[in-house]
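Ticket #4471: structure export looks truncated?
Reporter: QA, pipeline team
Priority: medium

Steps to reproduce: submit the single chain below to the structure queue and open the exported record.
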Amino acid sequence: MSRMLPEILREIFRYLQSSELDLIAASLACKSWYFEARPLVNDGALRFLNLRSHRVACRHLDADVEYLQRLSSLLTESRRLRLGYCDLGYRRYCDLVEEIRILPSIMNEKVQSGADAIHRVVKLRPANLHRICIGFRNQDTAPYRDCVMRLLDHIRALGQTITSVALGSVSLPVKSGQQTHEICLGVLDRFKDDIHEVSLNGVQLDYPIQHALAQCHSVERLALRDGLPPSSDPPAPATENLVTRFADAFPHLTRLIFYMRVGRGDRVTGAQLRDLMTRCPKLRELRLEVDETVDDECVRFLAQTARNLVELHLSKCTGVRGEDEWSEGDIRWRELKRLHIADATGVAVSFVEQVLRVCQKLENVLLSKYDEGLEAKFEEYGYQYSIEEMSWKIDRSIPVTDIQ
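Actual output as written to the record:
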């Protein structure tokens, strides 16, 4: 068969069933079509094995399930038939899969069918599948939990290495339900030996969750957002000391995000922040909600000791008043690219000047508010104020020689 131009193939495939999977299926039918059609396939569509939320129209959920079923059947058949010329293509398509996404849906045959389709794809052992993202609602049912747990067992039994997990609520965080707790515990327990990244959003941090998380000794990136305080049954350590406990459990942390947002007692203190940087010297990204004990001296401590930081985001910094003078040698953030110090009472001009002078890689600066007194200093170093982002951004179009 003669080779066809992509434009001609595109017209042919336009009359198929309007799915990229039809394009792939047709490309597997013969060698010449495969090599012509391959560039037309959108790789991004195959990155996620996704079961969507029931909040979208049911037909969309059904379409996602059908997509998964056809993908798993196509990959399985191409492998079973041992089509030599498309073996590379099979591996290419299969290895595009990076993440499993399971979002809450009313438990029905379609959802179970979709979970089975995910299982079939995982059986093909995608080389780049290392992440699981699971959403839940407070009213999730036992059947939904059981469906998720069975799928987790299949993934583990197949020896798939999961290094990143994201567990989050898609409803108002009033109180985590029993099903939510069991799903979180199930994920952390099954993959604890390989997990390097954990993200928990809207999870009630009771003792079992805290304990299970602490058992994931290889964690390097940890994000806790909108977490709920522990319930009284069973009793759990207060969340005030979570940062200290996790710093002790994960000495190799390179990223920490901690926004509990449930009360003043759950903000990070100055003492905890100092202890964190002492225990976790490899931190490169730090995003925290702090209390008033994080003051100018605490910021100075960070500037002198946290030399590996690339991103520093501190919010609720009412204790930072900008009353100290900063001189050469006080700032050692050589790698810093983004600096956000929000809600500060004041920011010293000398601090800003030293940051702009020392941090040659800096791209974005957000302070407590727009300060006309700092405008000239930022502009001198090639920064412009972005009203949309309420921060100063470097203007790379200005030659370096003009801003020294």
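Status: closed, not a bug. The export was complete when the record was re-opened. Leaving a note from the reviewer for reference: Residues 10 and 86 are 20 Å apart (CA to CA).
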